[in-house]
């Protein structure tokens, strides 16, 4: 039986913050918290290149030329990068509301990658659900 006001993972989150503060200092903790908040799918925080690079060590990434990315459908990009196994898997996820481009939920199969989808002209963040992410470095 849970007590009123119980919030799951509170102790775990607090421990992680204290360890991060101890290892990286207050500034490192602030950066980590900002990145964690910004990288949640559907987050209101505006993504920037630096925030995405903060998580680059922990998230798979791929480098593609700009001409390989622009005007490509989001479904095709999700498969080309290895985020999803097939276009049918991408379609299913999209219909379930779990396909994100730079933290914005995409609900149209017709979505194509445009120049303004490339964050700071350098990266794209793809998400399949809350935890599966792929950084696309664009050159």
UniProtKB/TrEMBL annotation:
Q: Which GO terms describe its biological process?
A: tRNA aminoacylation
Q: InterPro entries of this UniProt entry? A: S4_RNA-bd, S4_RNA-bd_sf, SYY-like_C, Tyr-tRNA-ligase_bac-type
Q: Which PROSITE patterns does the entry link to?
A: S4
Give a Gene Ontology cellular component term annotated to this protein: cytosol
Q: Can you tell me which residues the record assigns to a coiled coil?
A: none
Q: What Gene Ontology molecular-function terms does this entry list?
A: RNA binding; tyrosine-tRNA ligase activity
Q: Has keyword Metal-binding?
A: no
Keyword list (alphabetical) reads: Ligase, RNA-binding
> Which ranges carry the RNA-binding S4 domain?
73-130
Does Nucleotide-binding count among this protein's keywords?
A: no
Which domain of life does this protein belong to? Eukaryota
Protein name per its UniProtKB record: Tyrosine--tRNA ligase, chloroplastic/mitochondrial
Source organism: Sesamum radiatum
């Amino acid at each position: 039986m849970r007590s009123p006001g119980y919030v799951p993972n509170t102790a775990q989150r607090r421990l992680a913050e204290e360890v991060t503060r101890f290892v990286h200092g207050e500034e490192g903790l602030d950066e980590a918290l900002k990145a964690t908040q910004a990288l949640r799918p559907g987050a209101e925080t505006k993504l920037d290149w630096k925030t995405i690079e903060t998580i680059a060590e922990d998230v798979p990434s791929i480098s593609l030329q700009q001409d390989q990315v622009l005007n490509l459908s989001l479904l095709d990009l999700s498969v080309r990068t290895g985020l999803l196994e097939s276009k049918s898997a991408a379609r299913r996820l999209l219909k379930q509301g779990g396909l994100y481009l730079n933290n914005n939920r995409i609900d149209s199969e017709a979505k194509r990658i445009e120049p303004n989808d490339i964050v700071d002209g350098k990266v794209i963040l793809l998400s399949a659900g809350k935890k599966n992410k792929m950084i696309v470095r664009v050159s």
